[in-house]
Design brief:
The chain is built from twelve helices and ten strands. By secondary structure, the chain is of the alpha+beta class.
Length: about 350
C-alpha cells in the first residue's frame, strides 16, 4: 500500500512553494505584516489564477475538482510562508456551499468563488469562544439574520460571509448588505486579520442542507489549521537552524553547542511525524466520513499544540532577538497562536474527542 503522495500532488505542492518563495519572500511578507492589512490583491489574484481559490469546486462550476488532501497540501505551503490573505475563510465558505447548498445555490455562488473574483469567508465563533455548531445563537426570521459573530477572518475584503446560525444551520450574507457592521477585532496575527460582525435584520439566504454541512465545515477547518500549523512549524525549525549556524556566543557558533543541537533535533522529531496525521485527516474527510470528525479533531489539537511549542522554543533559540519585531520568528509565532485558538483550543478539541469516544 502506498502511503505517499502522487506525482500530481507533489507537483502541486512544489508549484505552490515556488510561487510563495518568489511572490511573497520574507521582505515582502514583512511589508504586509507591518502594514497590518493582511491582504494583497495582486497576490490573491495570482493565487486565483493558479486555481487555488477553487481547488475543491467541481469542474462544471469552474474549479479543479480536487479533494481535501490537495487543499491541505496547499495550506501547508501557505503556512510555511506565513502567506497573508483570505485563503482559509474562502476555503471554508466554499466547503459550506459545496456541502450544504442546493444545486441552484451552487450554480449561483461556486463559479465566482472558484475564480477568486468573489471572496468568501466563514463566520463561526460567538461570544465566550463558542465555535461549535451546537453553540451558535444567531437567529433567522423570515429570511433575515440578527446576532453577532466574532473573529471572522478577512471580513473586510470579502463579498460573501457564510454565517453559522442557531441549530447548526448556515446562511449566506452579502458583506455590503444593509445591517452588516464590521469592527476590527485587533487580532494578533497580521497575516489574517479578524473582525467582529454584527447582524441587524440582514437579508440572508439559508443553505438547503446547512445543518448537515456545518459539522463538515468544522472538520475541514481542523484539517486546514493543522496543515497550516505543520507548515509554519517546519519553517520555524529551518529559520532557527540557519540562525544557529551563524550566531556566535562566547566566541563559538551556537549550533556547535550540544544543548542547541538537541533542542533543534527534538523540535524536528516532534513535528515531522505529524505530517501523516493531517494527511490521513484530509483523506478521511473525503473517503472515511465515519472517521473524519475524530481524526480531524486529533490533527487539529495535536499539531497546533506542537506548532505553538515550536514557536516558543524558536524564540528561545534566537535569544533576546527572538522577542523583537525585527525578528521574522514573531510573524510565525502569531500565526501559530491564531491556529491554536481558532475553532477551539487543543483542550476544548480534546474534550470533544473524549465525548466522541464515549468517555
Amino acid at each position: 500500500m502506498d502511503f505517499g503522495l502522487s506525482e500530481e500532488q507533489e507537483l502541486l505542492q512544489e508549484t505552490v512553494r515556488t510561487f510563495v518563495e518568489n511572490e511573497c519572500p520574507a521582505p515582502r511578507l514583512r511589508e504586509l505584516f507591518d502594514a497590518g492589512v493582511g491582504h494583497d490583491s495582486t497576490l490573491w489574484n495570482d493565487m486565483a489564477e493558479m486555481g487555488l481559490a477553487g481547488l475543491l469546486v467541481p469542474e462544471n462550476h469552474g474549479g479543479a475538482g480536487l479533494e481535501m488532501l490537495e487543499l491541505a497540501l496547499v495550506s501547508e505551503e501557505l503556512g510555511y510562508g506565513s502567506v497573508p490573505g483570505p485563503f482559509l475563510g474562502h476555503a471554508l465558505a466554499t466547503v459550506a456551499i459545496l456541502e450544504g447548498g442546493s444545486e441552484a445555490q451552487k450554480e449561483k455562488w461556486l463559479p465566482g468563488l472558484a475564480s477568486g473574483e468573489t471572496i468568501g469567508t466563514f463566520a463561526a465563533a460567538e461570544e465566550n469562544s463558542r465555535w461549535d455548531p451546537s453553540e451558535w445563537s444567531v437567529e433567522e426570521k423570515d429570511g433575515e439574520l440578527s446576532g453577532a459573530k466574532q473573529y471572522v477572518p478577512n471580513a473586510d475584503v470579502t463579498q460573501l460571509i457564510v454565517t453559522g446560525c442557531s441549530r447548526g444551520r448556515l446562511a449566506v450574507v452579502e458583506r455590503d448588505a444593509d445591517g452588516v457592521q464590521l469592527e476590527d477585532a485587533g487580532g494578533i496575527d497580521r497575516s489574517r486579520p479578524v473582525f467582529h460582525v454584527r447582524l441587524d435584520g440582514v437579508a440572508a439566504e439559508m443553505l438547503e442542507d446547512g445543518q448537515g454541512a456545518s459539522t463538515r465545515v468544522r472538520d475541514a477547518a481542523c484539517v486546514l489549521l493543522a496543515a497550516d500549523s505543520f507548515g509554519l512549524a517546519s519553517k520555524l525549525i529551518r529559520i532557527s537552524t540557519e540562525y544557529a549556524k551563524t550566531r556566535e556566543q562566547f566566541g563559538t557558533i551556537i549550533g556547535q553547542f550540544q544543548a542547541v543541537k538537541h533542542q533543534l533535533a527534538r523540535l524536528a522529531t516532534d513535528i515531522e511525524p505529524t505530517r501523516g496525521l493531517f494527511w490521513f485527516a484530509a483523506h478521511a474527510f473525503d473517503h472515511l466520513p465515519e472517521q473524519a470528525e475524530h481524526v480531524g479533531a486529533l490533527a487539529k489539537a495535536h499539531i497546533t499544540d506542537r506548532a505553538m511549542n515550536t514557536a516558543r522554543q524558536s524564540v528561545e533559540l534566537h535569544g533576546g532577538l527572538g522577542f523583537t519585531w525585527e525578528c521574522d520568528v514573531q510573524m510565525y509565532y502569531k500565526r501559530a497562536m491564531f491556529n491554536r485558538a481558532a475553532f477551539g483550543t487543543p483542550d476544548a478539541v480534546r474534550a470533544r474527542i473524549a465525548t466522541l469516544g464515549g468517555w
